[in-house]
Amino acid sequence: MGIDPNFEENREREGREHGVDVWGPTDPPETLGIRGTHVAVDFDICLADGACLEDCPVDVFEWVDSPGHPESEIKANPTNEVQCIDCMLCVDVCPVDAIDVDPGRENRL
Ligand code: SF4
Predict the structure, then answer these.
(1) Which positions are annotated as binding [4Fe-4S] cluster (predicted)?
(2) What is the pLDDT of residues 11-21, one digit of tens each?
(3) Domain encompassing residue 13
(4) How far, in Å, CA of 45 to CA of 59, rounded?
């Protein structure tokens, strides 16, 4: 199952890390939650495939370390989500549907 596209209704914002919002629940290192709001990555699904980093035309994603996480020891963090141009390439290439992009989400919060 991929990222919940309605996570902002179903989860609580717990704070910020690596420059983006953190949506819980979190229980590190095994459970890291969803990261980002306009460009959101479910860190508990991300397996560090890297296609989003390679394909994003405006370099939204950066690797961050996630030692001890069961899926992968690095994650694609949407550090530069303010640069997103909503091309949806990352959503299309992610093999595990860990990414959701919604330019209107911040306005609904
Ligand atoms: S939608 Fe396009 S511009 Fe936005 S993060 Fe994904 S690949 Fe980058």
Answers:
(1) 56, 84, 87, 90
(2) 999 999 999 99
(3) 7-108
(4) 21
